[in-house]
Amino acid sequence: MKYLKQSLQALCLLALTATAFAQTHEVLMKNRGSAGPMVYEPDYLEIQPGDSVKFIRKHRSHNAASIAELSPAGYQGFVGKIDEEIEVKYDKAGFYGIKCTPHYAQGMVMLIKVGDATLPDSYRAFKAPGVANKRFQAIYSRIDQQ
Ligand SMILES: [Cu+2]
Known about the structure:
Elements: H1 2-21, E1 24-33, E2 36-41, E3 44-47, E4 52-57, E5 65-66, E6 87-89, E7 94-99, E8 109-114, H2 121-125, H3 131-144
Parallel strand pairs: 1-4, 3-8
Antiparallel strand pairs: 1-2, 4-6, 5-7, 7-8
The structure holds copper (II) ion.
Copper (II) ion (CU) binds near residues 38, 62, 100, 102 and 108.
């Protein structure tokens, strides 16, 4: 009985520790930012597996959705509704591209790095529409300079 109680306490402690380390990162959805019109701020995040990203509605008419071509193989993806402050949890290491559906070609995109990962060549080769491609290439350049 004493052993069982100690085991339960250890389990509870373990569960508490796991949640204590998981973080929620906030990303603002904005009509205009320091990088120009239609932006996520920040446009690049490095997080740990188990962390979440919450998309905050700073201005109206934006959403957050995953980009199939810029997601790890087998990733289910998600599509937030317009003006929805969606919170997305990332468990698997890799790079995850995010777009605002109505402003994709206007360059409203961002990238999330989860855990230990190397940027796949397929991401660099992928041509996102309009300004989005330019912004992704700029993000890749910043990653390369790290
Ligand atoms: Cu938008």
